[in-house]
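Chapter summary example.
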Amino acid sequence: MIRALTLACFAVVAITTTAAPAAAAPVTAGAASYLAEHPGGTVVGANEISYDGGRFVVTLAPPAPSPEHVDAYVDCPSGWFCFYDRADFGYPRGKLSSCGWQSLATYGWQGRVESAYYNLSRGSVQFFDYGTGLFSVGVGYRSIDFVGGATNRATDVYRYC
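The structure predicted for these 161 residues follows.
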């Protein structure tokens, strides 16, 4: 009997002292709408949705401009290459960093690229339309603010590391 009570006490202590899982980020109306159209993501911030364990991240709207950046500017974070759903780096923005071949369809982003920026220290990325090369960005030519005839045609990317 004493042994059973001791085990029960340990179980209660273990349950009450185990850390609760981190709360998920709140789902905004914009994020809920995006997830309804592009399921499989996890809300990781008020304005961001992560797919494939953080391999691909969508930012739904740009951050508020700071006094230093009152005009439009590229805000692709270091360590990523970014592609935008609008010309002139207009949002939503997708970003990847992995090397090799990646299908944009995996993330519901095929046929949505209108501008791109490369913010990695080496390499480049080529955008494709079902195997046909469209355009590239890399350390030698970091940005394209409008992809012209390739608008909304990219289906895949290949990052050369």
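To summarize the output: Helices lie at 2-17, 29-37.
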